[in-house]
Amino acid sequence: MQKFADYIKRIEIDALWSGKKHIVWELNPQVNILSGINGVGKSTILNKVVKGLAAGGEFPSHMLKGVRLEVVPEDAKWIRYDLIRSLDSNLTQTLNEGEGFLRQALSALAGVGGGSLLDIQLYNLQRKYLDYQVNIGNRIIEQLQEGNAEAAQQLSLRKKRFQDMVDELFAETGKRIVRTENEIRFTQIGEVLLPYQLSSGEKQMLAILLTVLVEDDQPYVLFMDEPEVSLHIEWQKRLIDLIVELNPHVQIILTTHSPAVVMNGWLDRVTEVSDITLAQ
């Protein structure tokens, strides 16, 4: 049986650039925010960790040379993780899905006016959302068969809360999720909208919340590289709170330039790159 980590306890990187800058970052089990000026190495730190995890196989044998992670529990062999990037920097992530997936997504999106990198990400999340609903539905049936009506009802609450969140966030433009369909659809003044017809900020927020929802309340590490791009300031303020509410078992590791992201009580979780950089 695979043994998954609850969270990453420590990130250590021997050389951030060409043998310079030794990084040691002690992490909080829930929220970790990396700050610093452009070019100081925020994204590089995230990219080195994610690239190692993306290689696949048992942890830690597949990690990049010079990148070491300590996890809880310490004998865990697998790390569940997701990655959210800003709108202008997710091409590599998309290509990593595979050429076949990319062709399939572009073909499906061509008929609905989509095709941006964020549209492709939402297309992939739609598929994961369908799988999530099937899994939840099966577990609800099992609970009902065992006479556990209250437990069955509890299983449906997370999806409902996700829908309520999105309706609340999009209320200013009159958009609401269609709750009678399995795929994500919206109504606006009597018209049905696909996710690909949303604004860039709406797409970005939907992609983040969908990513967290389909984690299905499991321990995950959520890496986010400047996720606030295109989000208006009120959404930036609520971003971390919404994520933690949707999955209380998630560990957030994010980079940001926006003071708004930390305004709702997260200032003490901010780490400057200079604070975790040791001389070689």
Q: How does this structure look, described?
A:
This protein has seven helices and twelve strands. It has helices at 42-54, 91-96, 99-110, 117-145, 149-169, 200-213, 233-246, and strands at residues 7-13, 22-26, 31-35, 67-72, 81-85, 176-177, 186-188, 191-193, 220-225, 250-255, 270-272, 277-278. The strands form three sheets. Strands 5-9-10-3-11 form a five-stranded parallel beta sheet, with helices on both faces. A four-stranded antiparallel beta sheet has the order 4-1-2-12, covered by helices on one side. A three-stranded antiparallel beta sheet has the order 6-7-8. Strand 9 (220-225), helix 7 (233-246) and strand 10 (250-255) form a beta-alpha-beta unit. The model is unreliable at 88-95 (pLDDT under 50).
What strand line-up does the widest sheet have?
A: 5-9-10-3-11
Distance between the termini: 40 Å
Low-confidence sequence ranges: 88-95
How much is the radius of gyration in Å? 20 Å
Q: Can you give the helix content as a percent range?
A: 25-40%
Strand element count: 12
Task: Briefly note the structural class of the backbone.
Answer: alpha/beta
Question: Major beta sheet, specifics?
Answer: 5 strands, parallel
Sum up the overall morphology in one term: globular
Strand residue content: 15-25%
Count of DSSP H/I helices: 7
